[in-house]
Amino acid sequence: MKKMALLLTALTISACSNQPERQALIHGEQLDTPQKTAIGFVRLSQNSQYYVDTSSIWVDSAKNNLINFDTVINLHVGHRIFEDKNLMTKSVRQHKILNCQTNIMTHTGSHLYSEFWGEGVVFTPQKHREHQVKPRNGSTLGTVAQVMCANFYH
Question: Strand (E) positions, 8-118?
Answer without folding.
Answer: 29-30, 41-43, 50-59, 66-74, 77-78, 91-99, 104-115
